[in-house]
Amino acid sequence: MPTLGRFAQLDRVRYPHDMRNLSVEQLKTLADELRAETIDTVSTTSGHLGASLGVVELTVALHAVFDTPDDRVIWDVGHQTYPHKILTGRRDRIRTLRQPGGLSGFTRRSESEYDPFGAAHSSTSISAGLGMAVAHHLRAEHDPSYRERNVIAVIGDGSISAGMAYEAMNNASHCGPGAERLIVVLNDNEMSIAPPVGAMSSYLSRLMSSRKFLSLRDLAAKMAKRLPDRLERTAKKADEYARGIITGGTLFEELGFYYVGPVDGHDMTQLVQILRNLRDADDLGPVLLHVITEKGRGYTPAESAGDKYHAVAKFNVVTGEQKKGPAGPPSYTSVFSRELLRQAEADDRIVAITAAMPSGTGLDKFAKAFPERFFDVGIAEQHAVTFAAGLATEGMRPFCAIYSTFLQRAYDQVMHDVVLQNLPVRFAIDRAGLVGADGATHAGAFDLNYLGCLPGITIMAPSDELELLNMTTTAAAFDEGPIALRYPRGGGFGLDLPAAGRVMEIGRGRIVREMTRQSGPERGGIAILSLGPRLAEALKAADMLAAQGLAPTVADARFAKPLDTALIEQLARNHAVLITIEEGAPGGFGAFVMMHLAKTGLLDRVRFRPMALPDRFIDHNTQAAQYHEAGLDAQAITNTALEALGVGISMTQPLLKTAIGPKS
């Protein structure tokens, strides 16, 4: 630990129980040291800094007040949990954060008992927390020795914009006594819900969470129960609306939560006092504590940055300057963004939609150029898709740009609201394939599977940035139904790009490198059919095989749906081995090809070998290392081809020409 010895208070805290007897002043010192440790850590590892800095005081207060890990603290989403990891026995490993074999950048159940729920996608904490609270109550009813736990769900103001959060809150009011130990902490760092925090609102929050106030409120409630039903309901509403007028929490009260706030999320004295009050309160029902925090708090470069250092590369702690790698080719995201802008300039029917990811999807530039045609719907992928469907019904040409891993959340809307009605919504699916340091939670491994089974959808996958340029143009011109283009994270290959893309023929692949001129029945040899950017590795493998006298045919499928069946049949008829490669889970493109071969009888005539991601999750690492682990690099392709031919995979072993003869 590079900082061991620098932070006296933090050095004494290995686990949360070490904090329980600290004074508020000591907790303030601990928070200051924890913030400095978090900054120093991320400067060496990269990662999500701004959100973690905003919850330092809240993290300290929660672990000091509640009996974690028995009391459950769920973070929504997990990228704000670096301080939490440091306080829960992981400080000695914190500089392995997001590194190969190191700590996850999100909460993970298998990593620590202090992570009761994995969270790398947003808006799940209240549902999970309610389930835990009800489970504790049911267990306590059957086991008198079991102490019911408090469950605290910390959710950001962005995450609470998703419908699932409101579904959970609505359900909490009807779950009975099990929900009474649920405390939702709304971490508001955008000032988007509450008015500015002042002395009066802070005083009222402390008052409303105090035992005296709660006892008085309980007495009033008991008196109201003696009134006729109509007057009792009126008294209850008067209580809710009186507090709602003061604090702005009426919405949450209507959902059945006892609202407390807003509270200064950086005032340790207030936080500790209010959390203790809520911890010790009885029969309060589910509670929503509204805290106001500042993203990037306590680190000047983060506070002054527009994105508050949400996600950063390694940086200089003193200056805040981020260490940039050598300039490389433009990213796939930027190529998509550039062509979409060009198309929108010529066609005012094109609109762009994203779910809280304008910069991540490259739509921030579209938003500046065409603000009236850009829609950021917040963390609400389901709404984004159906909103796009509605636009499409009226003749607009919507591009719905969502990461592959987040589009999973809107699957029913894709099927029912778009595909079933054959509406021309364009899905720009960013981060398809493996994504590096964000690991399995953000990997775009499944979109080929969950989209490919839907009738009538067109799915494209570019092998390089030029193909993406053309596919973006193609999607803009395609009005026959839903169309998707999936592309990876990271940079392209540095190809020269024309000023404009061209419209491609739907469902038509291409031969990139041909073994020989092929005509007639089986000629033997290897065919490699790639979908997406693995084409570069397929060509490397082709060079390796050619060096062994086994130069293969290499083809770029371009479309997962509709398949280029003529190309597939040609490859199957004229080669002894047919290999498909895709950056997706088993059951995707390779399965589609195999089904076609089986239907035509060609599967009986060719040695078919599908290559896809393994049937397991791949942990965070570099993208190159992940694909090596997945067995989707050039060497793995070469080995697959040699094994299919019945030739040893040693590159020094002489190869027999008879090995490439027709399959018997």
TrEMBL record:
Binding site for thiamine diphosphate: H79, A120, H121, S122, G158, S159, N189, Y299, E381
NCBIfam families: dxs, PRK05444.2-2
SUPFAM superfamilies hit by this protein: Thiamin diphosphate-binding fold (THDP-binding) (SSF52518), TK C-terminal domain-like (SSF52922)
Oligomeric and partner information: Homodimer.
EC number(s) reported in the record: 2.2.1.7
One Pfam short name: DXP_synthase_N
Residues that hold Mg(2+) according to the record: D157, N189
Keywords, comma-separated and alphabetical: Isoprene biosynthesis, Magnesium, Metal-binding, Thiamine biosynthesis, Thiamine pyrophosphate, Transferase
Residue ranges constituting the Transketolase-like pyrimidine-binding domain according to the UniProt record: 330-495
Function: Catalyzes the acyloin condensation reaction between C atoms 2 and 3 of pyruvate and glyceraldehyde 3-phosphate to yield 1-deoxy-D-xylulose-5-phosphate (DXP).
Segment forming the signal sequence: none
GO molecular function: 1-deoxy-D-xylulose-5-phosphate synthase activity
SMART domains the record matches: Transket_pyr (SM00861)
Homology family: Belongs to the transketolase family. DXPS subfamily.
Name of the protein in question: 1-deoxy-D-xylulose-5-phosphate synthase
Textual note on the cofactor: Binds 1 thiamine pyrophosphate per subunit.
Cofactor(s) in the UniProt record: thiamine diphosphate; Mg(2+)
